[in-house]
Amino acid sequence: MSHLDQALLDELKLVLEDEFVDLISAFIDDSNERMKLIRQQFEQQDWTQLSRTAHSFKGSAGNIGAQVLADMCMALEDNARDGNCSLQMIEQVDQEQASVCQQLKIIANNS
Amino acid sequence: MTDSLKLKVLVADDSETDRMILSAIVRQEGHEVLPAKNGKEAVNIYRSERPDIVLLDALMPVMDGFEAARTIKAIAGTELVPIIFLTSLQDPQSLVRSLESGGDDFLSKPYKRVIIKAKLTAFGRMRSMHAAIQANHRQLLIEQQVAKRVFDNVAHQGCLESAGIRYSLSPLSVFNGDTLLAQRRPDGGLSIFLGDFTGHGLPAAIGAMPLAETFYGMTAKGFELEDIVKEINLKLNNVLPMGVFCCAAVAHIDFINKSLRIWVGGLPDLCFWRESTKEAVAVASSGLPLGIVGADKFSPKVEQYRMDDGDRLLFWSDGIHEARNSEGELFGEERLWRLIRGREEDSIFDAVLNGVNEYIGQNDREDDITLAEVTMQNVDLRSMRPLGGGAALEGVLNWQQSTTFDAKSLRHYNPLPLMLHNLSEIPWVRQASGELYTMLAELYSNALEHGVLELDSQLKASTEGFATYYAEREQRLKDLKSGFVRISFAHQFENDTFQLVIEVEDSGNGFDWQSTLNNSLENKKYSGRGVPLISAIADKVEYQGNGNFVRVTLRKPEDGDSI
Amino acid sequence: MTISATAANDQSQMTITVDGRFDFSSHQEFRQVYENAPKTIKRWVVDMSSATYLDSSALGMLLLLRDHAGGENSDITISGCNNDVRKILTISNFGQLFNIE
Questions:
Q1: pLDDT tens digits along B134-160
Q2: Does residue B412 sit in the same domain as residue B520?
Q3: Chains B and A lie in contact, requiring 3 or more CB pairs less than 8 Å apart
Q4: What is the ipTM, given to two decimal places?
Q5: Are B411 and B324 in a shared domain?
């Protein structure tokens, strides 16, 4: 299963032109930042903030064509809101985030 | 206004990548982008840059989208600023929250280019339409203000500021359908007109123009109430479109004879307040509103009341009945009359005005509230003299004229305005046209009522008799087959001064003028007032024979003197 | 507020029924009713039994109908008025222009 929606990325490339590379590096920095925040909030068991972080992450991931990551964020958002969030779930999101970023780097290098 | 209109679009999102993507899409559609990282930045940029459309992420640090939307809408005031929420929110509660904080639409993540394009186009079009409507509205307001100035000059002037009159006009719309006019009669009396046109605004105000001209002109010339009402009806019938008319009340307050003559057509009951008995008499509508039927179908029925000092007439339009409280209930006619009858304050005017305002509270008034009150006062005749110009030797010097009015003329015609018009050719007489009209009116009504119609002035001594007297006058005049009143004027230069001699003769049996002459002006009896009044104005009064011939002489006053 | 109309079988009489508030908002509807009526209508009945309120614009509409129906020669009956409606018609002396039942 692909981590990224190629058609959507092609369209973004068209719209953003030179800025496309900047967009990708911004997303990579941003998502690393968000993962850190998610782990922190999990350790502090701050479910409300965790849910909000997952919510924002979901939006950004969807916008860049990382649909699997967006879906996982949505599940995390829902579970965190109910306060039953497992470390395993966070590891899953982390893994998917790493794969997405890796693929994005390749795309960026080829642009 | 085209679809490719370039808009200034504020894009507020804390996620850098989302902001980049949305900005790029918006820019590619040919619009200018103003990016913001949180709600606070968005508000600041809105304040300084006034973008055309605002795209707001719901959840942002520092200030969230909901608060930013509320603040921006508050700053925008009446200007239309579409706010579109950017959201991946799915729960209905959050969507409702964004609408409640002033959002106009949503845009969901992940973004779809076609949808963004379509929404920007639609809101851009809506915005320019709104701007066009606002420009039209501003133009309309300017035009209305100019028209209102003209209207006020015509319709709300006259002598509404005279002693004895209090009024309140609703300031709520540029034109309300109400017209309130007051004008002095040549004898110092007052005529008041209250009209309520169908509809509001310009259409309602236009009809007031010919109406006011007619009312002012005919009143100042001394025409009878019936004739004025008939003429206004005819004018309005000619100029108003079918279905537009004017509900009205016209009252005529005679300070000399202490009487009230009133005609009401289509307005709710008015209130005539008798101070001595503390009695509120309802004066009901007796005719069609003005402007509906032609002259041949319109015969106004005028009511006549004795009006003592302190008696009042209260006018209002149906705006008072239709005033609503915060629960939407009507003030209603019953409540108004209860208020008048059961009030504690001394002034009915204040009681009604305060009562209505208290009732409606902060609520918007639906209709136009117009209220006016006239109080009968003891007026010094000499203070009412209208001023006019004219040098002593201008105009005609020696002339005379004699006019005889037969039964047919007496039935249908009031000769006073014509006679006054002729006499005002003489400059020194014109200066005293008020006194002159008063005197002529007395002489004429004595000749007509006591002479030709043989009415007994003693009848007028009581309230019931007063009404009977005028009912009888109307009946006898209608049935009049024979009789005459002859009025002659002579203007002469004699004993180094000008003098005007007026002779009035009638076909009646005369009256006991000697005892009537002994009545003084201060006498509170209502009958026979005319004769002492004439004596007070004229330099010489001579009755001859049975009293059916009277000669009155007026001398031109020395400069600075009144007659 | 609704206006409805029914013509008698022989098309000589039309009954216009007014439901609810009779005010300026029904101007268009009311006008359409009489303007689209068959030319054969000689007698008009305005049924007010379901009308709750009447303002001066409504009086204006009645005058327009009267004009359409021949002015002086029109034959218009206003029927079923409640007290409030009757009062307004009385104040305006519309009894001189219409048959009020």
A1: 889 888 888 877 877 777 777 666 677
A2: yes
A3: yes
A4: 0.91
A5: no
